[in-house]
Design brief:
Layout: H1 10-19, E1 24-32, E2 38-44, H2 45-61, E3 69-73, H3 78-90, E4 93-96, H4 103-113, E5 117-120, H5 122-131, E6 140-143, H6 150-154, E7 160-161, E8 178-179, E9 201-206, E10 216-220, H7 221-235, E11 242-245, H8 248-251, H9 253-256, E12 260-262, H10 277-286, E13 290-292, H11 295-307, E14 317-319, H12 327-334, E15 342-344, E16 347-349, E17 352-357, H13 360-372, E18 377-382, E19 387-391, E20 413-418, H14 430-436, E21 437-439, E22 445-455, E23 461-466, E24 471-473, E25 476-478, H15 480-488, E26 493-501, E27 508-515, H16 521-535, E28 546-549, H17 565-576
Helix pairs in contact: 1-2, 2-3, 11-12, 12-13
Length: about 575
Amino acid sequence: MTDIGVVNIASHLKTIARSRPFAPAVFCPSGRDRSGRTRYVHWTYQQLDAESDRIAKGLGSNGVGRGVRTVLMVKPSLEFFSLTFALFKLGAVPILIDPGMGIKNLGRCLDEAQPVAFIGIPRAQVARRLLGWGRATLQFTLTVGRELTYQRIERSVKRRFDPREWLPRAGIELGGAMDVLWDPGHDEESVEIAPTRPDETAAILFTSGSTGPPKGAVYTHAIFAAQVELLRNLYGIEPGEIDLCTFPLFALFAPALGMTAVIPEMDATRPAHVDPNKILEPIESFGVTNLFGSPALLKRVGGFGAERGITLPSLRRVVSAGAPVPARVIETFAKMLMNDAEIHTPYGATEALPVASINSRAILGETRQATDRGAGVCVGRPVEGMRVAIIRITDAAIPNWSDDLELPDGQIGEIAVQGPVATREYFKRPAATALAKIAGPNGGFWHRMGDLGYRDDPGRIWFCGRKAHRVITPAGTLFTIPCEAVFNTHPAVSRAALVGVGTPGKMKPVLCVELARPRVTDDLQRLRTELLEIGARFPHTREIRTILFHPSFPVDIRHNAKIFREKLAIWAARKLR
């Protein structure tokens, strides 16, 4: 392969640290001041570059280097940023897993990833030792926590110590000893970024597991580089902007894009339960220009702000992903924005992001009415460099691409994508890779999104739900999003979820409904009648005659927005029995 130089997301940090050394790179919450407002600590780009250099030296001296798979379980913090960029500089391979996915899934993911190093907060290290995570492959561990901070680690020279010295102060007990790092002394020499190739593995990012076991998507350095450029060009992001990011993985793009990342005071695994004031306060304090948040967060913060007449004049754009964003959520949040600000909803997945994008003006002015009638959710046109094909629906593997796989415009099929941000494989999961990838000519490939949709005449893509969630009845196949949208128009419905009870081909369609507010039994009977009347108006929803009311839908831990329809289907089957 021709040497085209270093392709590494850490090179963006080096470049900005040289051109804008004193510009703030990251602000992280650090308690409260006397007035009760959040206090922040920060690093400039120069400091972030220097700190990640020092960490890289220490990790490198302990054998963490190019290609070394390294679990990173650290909360959003200054250490999270410096550790991640240190690993990128070394050419190591961070393994990023959502801690909220459950002990069983975490263990399975770690067994598959076969990590050599494990960097985590004390609680993660306790779990690792008690549950034996990575026992067969781990050679190095580093603890980063409230009591044993990075500064204390710096002063420790490769020695053994008893963690009981400090863990009890954090409310944790742990026996045995643990390796810690280094004393870099006064060596301020910059670390040379590893000469990583474009096709070299850069990170392993695990999916949320919302429609099956979590899988490790293999990211190359070329994919990260393509994502940075796509996001910059797609949304017109400029250096010097202020980014409030409520999802840690997206926060890493901020320094690469030249933005200042502000981490809000919140539990990143529970965006649906965020305190709206803790989002609105930093937007006002820092003059935030860019906000990334899940649909659940936008719903909570938007409702709070709109009720109080709050405006956010500094915001230029809001980006929301993780699940379809309801038009009424967009409409409510948009009330806080100035006229030239936009809400963007990119379409994609862990395996390929972004694929397409649409803004709030198009949704509220053009596509919303069609969505309410059951046309699906418009996710916009493919972004530059990404090809989208709609192929026939099958649950079987498709080894090789052929043009006759494609369906004509307007016909629902599986969405397949090709382009620079599509991952080629799942780590150590050949069967899952075979189901998700289609080999193309000249070494190319298509990624099957596992989503259903169609292309309209203007070339826009419409999302119709997950392939695994389609309800196959004796009368035909029902698709979740087009059916649910019809019932979501009722003001008493917070959201609806269509599930199938029974075996494919003989499924009974059941509509599960989460209410906007509690209702008494008599109201529920009347509401059921009203919903059935709404469903009877459309050919694709007339078959849905069973409605169950659920107190609170189970959702994914990453965005609190994807509905676990598999769990709802089990619940519905029990209720019907």
